[in-house]
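Amino acid chain
________________
===
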Amino acid sequence: MGKFLQLLEYKAGRAGVRVVKVRPRGSSEELSYENRLKDWISACRIKMRGWGSPDSPAEMKPLLAFVVASLIVEAGSPHPSGVG
């Protein structure tokens, strides 16, 4: 382990924080070279990997069921005709 990581883990331990090592590979994929926020976006992606979060902010699975909003009855709403 490098001297920097040793010092970082020592300081983090004294502050009650842990250090998580992650691979930065692929953190800037799909970002153009001219993008002014490229470094910031890459750093956010690396941080999310350290937290164990996926790179995408939401699940990319299909919905299990579709519900027509007009069929939903909320508490306090008047009952639709023929119900209740």
Observations:
- DSSP finds two helices and no strands in the chain.
- Residues 30 and 68 are 36 Å apart (CA to CA).
- Residues 38-50 form the longest helix (13 residues).
- The chain has a mean pLDDT of 74.
